[in-house]
Amino acid sequence: MKRYCLALDLIDDETLIAEYEHWHKAENGWPEIKKSILDAHITAMEIYRTGNRLFMIMETSDEFSFDEKAKADAENPKVQEWEKLMWKFQQPLAWAKEGEKWILMNKIFELKA
């Protein structure tokens, strides 16, 4: 199993943030999006928010590949529709490269008993 942590900002608008959270409630998510995530060998995913900053934790099997996920997403019209809808709420981090959304975070500390 691998764990990845990623960050992204939302547009700092209470109405847009509430709508973004609405779309991420289990009953409002699109089944095709959940399937695309699971098909990519992502075994668990959580998104947390503080203010307009999002933090995602992904757990994956060893078969997971960011490149393969990006390729599959680009070829999936429903994922593209979802991404277009989500971009209405999102904004790149200041240090993101052109077209980059979620930015992979570097682990800088770990404590184990």
From TrEMBL:
Pfam families assigned to the protein according to its UniProt record, in alphabetical order: rhaM
EC number: 5.1.3.32
InterPro entries in the cross-refs: Carb_Metab_Mutarotase (IPR052996), Dimeric_a/b-barrel (IPR011008), Rham/fucose_mutarotase (IPR008000)
One Gene Ontology term of the molecular function aspect: L-rhamnose mutarotase activity
Keyword Isomerase: yes
Key word Chloroplast present: no
The entry's keywords: Isomerase
The organism's place on the tree of life at top rank: Bacteria
EC class (word): isomerase
PANTHER family: UPF0734 PROTEIN DDB_G0273871/DDB_G0273177, UPF0734 PROTEIN DDB_G0273871_DDB_G0273177
UniProt name for this protein: L-rhamnose mutarotase
